[in-house]
Amino acid sequence: MVPAMSFRSVFAGVALAAVLLVAPAEAGGARRPVVLELFTSQGCNSCPPADALLGQIAATRHDVLALSLPVTYWDMLGWKDTLASEANTRRQKGYAEAMRSGGIYTPQTIVDGVDDITGSKEQAINAALAARAADMESIPVVLSATPKEIRVLVGAGRGGQDATIWLFHILGKATVAIGAGENQGQKITYHNIVRDVRAVGMWKGQQVVLDLPRGDMAIPPSDAIAVIVQEGGYGRIIGAAKIGRPEY
């Protein structure tokens, strides 16, 4: 479901603000981060090494937007993942359909919407990150916050096809003591946890401005948001940005 929002054409006043926001990134040649998505579960005994690797990347690679997406389908193994959401599970299934893969699994990483790699394979993941950074399609995405709303500005550009604008609610860090299932007795720390993800608009090559009410972001608890612009629904990523949620 798309949340209530103002989806407007850019008239004179907003157009000026948009130019001021986008121009510095274009003029300075700013590059967007490469997006790394890890599908994981507290009920998956092969996931902890992948969770640790994602935490390391999140802490050290400022050129990477590293996201942890806990899924729900291993809850049947005796432990209900305390951070998982059906939205994350739907996103992983969307990738499987778009990539025509045989199914879904954990730990799975998707790099920039195009590369499918087992989440614990550090060398393969680093190679994919480097390849995507060297051959990156990028359109400007600028996020800003006011006391009442989050403004999302997606700049004009050329893309291979129409793209979906995705909004992610992110919790920076959580440590969970797992009481049952395959990881019973372990205490695992998760980083950049996606607590909700939803489509909020479409991009067709033209500049788009979205004003999203801040009240929509109170539940589930999160301390940052990210916006990803992705060809089709689950194709190549062409724009990405992240912003913390300032308190007013």
Mean pLDDT: 86
Give the class from helix and strand content and strand pairing: alpha+beta
Low-confidence stretches: 1-29
Shape: globular
Helix content percent band: 10-25%
Number of DSSP-assigned strands: 12
Strand percentage, roughly?
35-45%
Strand order of the largest sheet: 1-10-7-6
Please tell me how large the radius of gyration is.
18 Å
Short structural summary:
This protein is α+β, with helices and mostly antiparallel strands and 248 residues long. Helix content is 23%, strand content 36%.
What does this structure look like?
This protein has four helices and twelve strands. It has 248 residues and is of the alpha+beta class. The protein is globular, with a radius of gyration of 18 Å. It starts with 5 loop residues before the first strand and ends with a strand.
Provide the fold topology.
Blueprint: E1 6-8, H1 12-27, E2 34-40, H2 48-60, E3 64-70, H3 86-99, E4 108-111, E5 115-118, H4 122-134, E6 141-145, E7 149-154, E8 163-177, E9 187-203, E10 208-213, E11 224-231, E12 237-244
Parallel strand pairs: 2-3
Antiparallel strand pairs: 1-10, 2-4, 4-5, 6-7, 7-10, 8-9, 8-11, 11-12
